[in-house]
Amino acid sequence: MPTNCLFCRIAANEQPATRLYEDDDVIAIRDIAPRAPTHILLIPRRHIASALDLTDAEGPLLGRLFAVAADLARSEGIADDGYRLASNVGRWGGQTVDHLHIHLMGGRAFEWPPG
Ligand code: 5GP
Ligand code: ZN
Q1: Helix (H, G, I), strand (E, B), or coil: what is residue 95?
Q2: Could you identify which of 32, 42, 53, 82 might form a hypothetical disulfide with 102, taking C-beta atoms 3.0 to 4.6 angstroms apart as the criterion?
Q3: Residue of 41, 48, 84 with the most ligand 1 atoms within 8 Å of its CB, for mutation
Q4: 71 pocket-lining for ligand 1 (C-beta < 6 Å)
Q5: For residue 109, how far is its CA from the centre of ligand 2 (angstroms)?
């Protein structure tokens, strides 16, 4: 585990976060600077730098991340109106934390394409 990685530290409970869900493979936390009424981050415990590093081997892990997102969308009350899932990759993709995460955002309408 990279000791200076923010999401590795949050996953290891070395850094505080509002945790909504966790299991052996995945954690879900509230974004510290929400851009929507509901803004949750789905994070694999294992350090993966970004979606650029994913292979077929991560298929089950990705399924778990999306399933947890769906469960949280229901429990947060945003499932019926719809929501946005996004994973930013690299500099031009807008990634600021280099540990794979999926944004779950809802509670308002979103533009397409994003800015
Ligand atoms: P990215 O910009 O990499 O797509 O997403 C990183 C997200 O992490 C941003 O939405 C940012 O607000 C969030 N974030 C940054 N630092 C922290 C933190 O210390 N705690 C939590 N819960 N979220 C953070
Ligand atoms: Zn990490």
Answers
A1: coil
A2: 42
A3: 41
A4: no
A5: 31
Distance separating alpha carbons of residues 97 and 101, to the nearest angstrom: 9
Cα–ligand 1 centroid distance for 95 (angstroms):
9
Q: Is the pLDDT of residue 97 over 90?
A: yes
Site to substitute for ligand 1 among 38, 96, 98, 102, most atoms within 8 A of C-beta? 96
Amino acid identity, position 24: D
Cα of 105 vs centre of ligand 2, distance in Å, is 22
- pLDDT (average), residues 21-30: 98
Q: Residue range 76-95: average pLDDT? A: 98
Which of the 8 DSSP states describes residue 13? T
What's the pLDDT at 3?
75
Instruction: Determine the atom of ligand 1 nearest the C-alpha atom of 86.
Output: 4
The predicted structure's pLDDT at residue 1: 66
